Amino acid sequence: WVFLWEKGYQEKDSVVSSVTTKAKGVAQTNTSQLGFRIWDVADYVIPAQEENSLFIMTNMIITVNQTQGTCPEIPDKTTVCESDANCTAGSSGTHSNGVQTGRCVPFNGSVKTCEVASWCPVEDDSRVPRRNILPNISTAYLKSCVYDAHTDPFCPIFRLGQVVESAGHSFQDMAVEGGIMGIQVKWDCNLDRAASLCLPRYSFRRLDTRDADHNVSPGYNFRFAKYYRDLAGQEQRTLIKAYGIRFDVIVFGKAGKFDVIPTMINVGSGLALLGVATVLCDIIVLYCMKKRFYYREKKYKFVEDYEQGLAGDTEQ
């Protein structure tokens, strides 16, 4: 077991890795707010480079032309009001978009909310928009291959939908609220064999919580803004709440190569265990089994002491 399965004759070390990621491709959207638009890598990969991970924006909420001013807050149980008495000047909640001015103003034709000093108009995210390399790999192969566990298990190019589905989730559902996926790369190498046989194994799993009972903040999202000034010199910004899938590349594994020291240690340990096994078997047979007296008689042979025999003959 130790030598054949666990390879006890090898010296082993863990993997030290450096991961680089690159996204390619374009996407198309046609919304009432932005109209027809083509998105490339510079648009949907945020930030452009991360350590051991890659974020791809798959959904977003855009609030355009925001300026510093006062405007009605988004309606909820803490901001809906009937008069100024319901609003406290200078207060700001954990989830508010600004500081209240103390005035109760119309949000629309039927609802009034407390006015806030903030970037206006404030963001309304209450409704999330919905919508249905190994050495032998050549450049020509990389341009045509796509990872498949059966036909191309070593191709390092993945389709987003295939990665999510391989983890047992729906890409359409995950693209709406975002999430975190782990791309696991496992190396298990026997360096006593040819280096070309040291190959990676890919697997995928979802890392963020999807427990229905503890789903407080589902998915993955963050906000960023683009600032500019209009012709009058007033500062404005476009606020974007980005939903997407973050891919964390996790590399792990081990490698082993023959070494005299672990070989001798395991040989010595095996010999020592053989001696212990003999003692253990004797204890079980001689003291624990029902026929222990029979085994004791067969194991030990009682002989008469020679010197006592001679003394007896002399006395006679």
From TrEMBL:
Keyword set, alphabetical order: ATP-binding, Cell membrane, Disulfide bond, Glycoprotein, Ion channel, Ion transport, Ligand-gated ion channel, Lysosome, Membrane, Nucleotide-binding, Receptor, Transmembrane, Transmembrane helix, Transport
Transmembrane residue ranges: 267-289
Pfam families: P2X_receptor
One Gene Ontology biological process: calcium ion transmembrane transport
GO cellular component, one term: postsynapse
Gene3D superfamilies linked: atp-gated p2x4 ion channel domain
Annotated disulfide bonds: 71-120, 81-104, 87-114, 145-155, 189-198
Subcellular localization: Cell membrane; Lysosome membrane
Molecular function GO terms recorded: ATP binding; extracellularly ATP-gated monoatomic cation channel activity; purinergic nucleotide receptor activity
Binding site for ATP: 22-24, 221-223, 241
Catalytic activity: Na(+)(in) = Na(+)(out); K(+)(in) = K(+)(out); Ca(2+)(in) = Ca(2+)(out)
UniProt KW Transmembrane keyword: yes
PROSITE patterns xrefs: P2X_RECEPTOR (PS01212)
Membrane topology summary: Multi-pass membrane protein
Cell membrane keyword on record: yes
Family: Belongs to the P2X receptor family.
Protein's UniProt name: Purinergic receptor P2X 4
Originating species: Cavia porcellus (Guinea pig)
